[in-house]
Amino acid sequence: MFEQERISRRGFFKVSAAGAAALAAARAPFALAADTETEGKRVPRTGLQLYSIREDCGKDLAGTLAAVAKIGYKGVEFAGYHGRDAKTLRKMLDDLGLVCCGTHTDLETLTGDNLAKTVAFHKILGNKFLIVPGFGAKTKQDWLDKAKQFTEIAEKLRAQGMMTGYHNHSHEFKPIDGEVPWDLFFGNTPKDVIMQFDTGNAVGGGGDAVKYLKKYPGRAVTIHAKPWSKTDPKAVIGEDDLPWKEIFDICETTGNTEWYIVEYEVGGVPAIEAVDKCFQGMKKMGKA
Length: 288
Prior knowledge:
single chain; 8-stranded parallel beta sheet; alpha/beta; 12 helices; two-stranded antiparallel sheet; TIM Barrel
């Protein structure tokens, strides 16, 4: 399921070069929600990956964002911009008291002449987290080459107050010649390359969420809180099989996590209803 969704998702991530170029001269301060400290723990805010409700966004973006804010989410992570420019999107968010807690963007938007356009777009949007949701890598050398490329991108973004990162699906935890791609990548990138750990995808691919969150301290600046269940593929957060208490404990201590970003991708369930139930599950666990 996840691999098919990853492929279909890629069309959502491209930033319009013409639109971004028109915005390049504009600037706006970041509007990022601050987390809080409780008993020595950092308590992240809870946002929503809009890919979860992409069809609703496509039909009525303003109305859907209003519904997301009404549920109680504090931020949204984009996966495409539905034909809007950064100024329009920023105003929509500001009017609802939402902030942009990240975006999923193709790797090519962070390379060459595209990088400056992407930076300009996201300064207006108030977003500092530029996350790549996938790329073509089949061999160990492919993964090492990508690690080098992300290292170079991260270095360029530091001066802009921005960070890049990588979001997993399932294949990153299936060994290649005895080595796990996730380790090949994050073992060869600097600490400020975000490890956006997707809990459901990882466990579905054989990756132990607790193990990998512990293995790379400080790297899980944003994570995807996605449910996973052996017996109920439609389970929402809090009704699934993941060890959420352990996951949250790591994120709020050594993980350096700023945002829990809910994502729910199961078909056959009304999307806005599902993300509402996931939010309520987070709330019951004291995370929203």
